[in-house]
Amino acid sequence: MPLDLNPDLDRLFANPMAEVSGVFEGKKYRLKIVIPDYARNVTDFYHDVTGISLPDLCRRVEIPFGYKHFGLVCEFAAPIELKLHDDDMALEQSVKSLVDRIGPVSIKNAYLSSQQRSMGHRNRFPHLSFHVDRSSNQPTPYSLFSRDPFDPEQIEPRTASTLFVANIVAYLQLIKEKQADFATEKGIRTLYNIFAKTDMSQAINRVVLEQAWNAPRGTGEICIQDNRTVQHASYYRDAARQGYKIGVRYVG
User: Fold this and answer.
1) Mean pLDDT throughout 181-203?
2) Burial of 193 by CB count in 10 Å (0-12 exposed, 13-18 middle, 19+ buried)?
3) In the chain, N or C: fewer CB atoms in 10 Å?
4) Which CATH number fits domain 6-251: 3.30.160, 3.60.130, 3.30.1760, 3.30.1490?
5) Residue closest to 233 by CA, chosen among 206, 177, 193, 185
């Protein structure tokens, strides 16, 4: 049975500050938007950077931006096994639609099916080095990150989180830090080393979305993003505690 949360998302878009409850395969869940009014937040956060409206900016620098809100969390009340892609790494269409509409989708208290947990690999991304895992012309543009609650290492909460930004935010932060010139910089880079001198408490949940991986011991967590529209990086609040490698696989 596909995990189709799009009807709930329609309800959330009508009232983005609310939470919505539902049931999937007998398991209750709560759904909420992480950063409501993302476009307005981006405009306010970078109001002094370019002097033009966000839509005009996106056209001028050739970076599409279509997120009104950013990030969705689906938290199950009890642990649940999910099959979100097939053995050929084809992502469920319903989940793909969610990611296309709202950016990263986080599913808490959930784990991948037993036959799929060994797929993919594990990685520890560099601190605040925002990048893409896949190019837009590859058949598997979505990254699926996972914490396996049955693994002796990943059973524990992770000490490092994963941060996500829309492509236009990475661009604007680059200009804000004067690493590039607004008069000449265009298009999407595949790597941005940004936010190093920023108080991240001012950026997280405003223009940066955080997947903390800090649910209690034995909790499965899954997060899916589209590399064509979103960049991600690790965030080490303590440089000496980089955390274990998170599960990564590419799906399309």
Assistant:
1) 97
2) middle
3) N
4) 3.60.130
5) 193
DSSP designation for 54? H
Tens of pLDDT, residues 28-43: 999 999 999 999 999 9
pLDDT in tens, 113-159: 888 888 889 999 999 999 999 988 899 999 999 999 999 999 999 99
Q: CA 154, CA 216: separation in Å to the nearest integer?
A: 11
Q: Distance of alpha carbon 90 from its chain centroid, rounded?
A: 19
Q: How is the chain split among helix, strand and coil, in percent rounded to 5?
A: 20, 35, 50
Domain residue ranges in the chain: 6-251
Residue 167 contacts residue 54 (beta carbons within 8 Å): no
Separation between Cα atoms, residue 136 and residue 92, nearest integer Å: 19
